[in-house]
Every structure is written in C-alpha cells, then in structure tokens.
Amino acid sequence: MGNTARKQRILHALDDLPDDATVEEAIERLCFLAKVERGLFQLDAGQAIDHDEVKRRFQP
C-alpha cells in the first residue's frame, strides 16, 4: 500500500470519530487499524495460525 493511500485511510478513520472524541480515542482507533493492517499483511505472507492451533496454545 502506498503512503498516500495509507494517509487517506488514517484521515478517514479520524474523520469518522465523533466531534467530541478524545485524543485517547483517536489513538485507540489508529492502533486498532495498525493491528488490523499488520494482521492482513501476515495473512498475505502466509503467516496465519490455524484455529485449532490457537485453541491449543490458549488451553491451560
């Protein structure tokens, strides 16, 4: 993804916040978007973990 497209997604995410949103809410939204983007990149790179493996790792 190019820098211009990334910047536009960031600006759009911030524009979608309510007018009374706090700085903390804006940061939370951007952190969420960054994590989603990272996850999608990992999926595209074949770095996914299958559902059964995730369940196994989280069992006590």
Largest sheet: none
Number of strands: 0
Count of domain modules: 1
**Helix proportion:** over 70%
What integer value in Å does the Rg equal? 16 Å
Distance from N terminus to C terminus (CA atoms, Å) equals: 39 Å
What is the string of helix and strand elements?
Answer: HHH
Give the overall form: flat
Approximately how much beta-strand content do the residues carry? under 5%
Number of distinct helices: 3
Look at the structure and give the mean pLDDT. Answer: 94
Q: Structural class, please? A: mainly alpha
List low-confidence stretches.
Answer: none
Describe the protein in words:
This protein has 60 residues and is mostly helical. It has one domain (3-58). The protein is built from three helices and no strands. The mean pLDDT is 94.
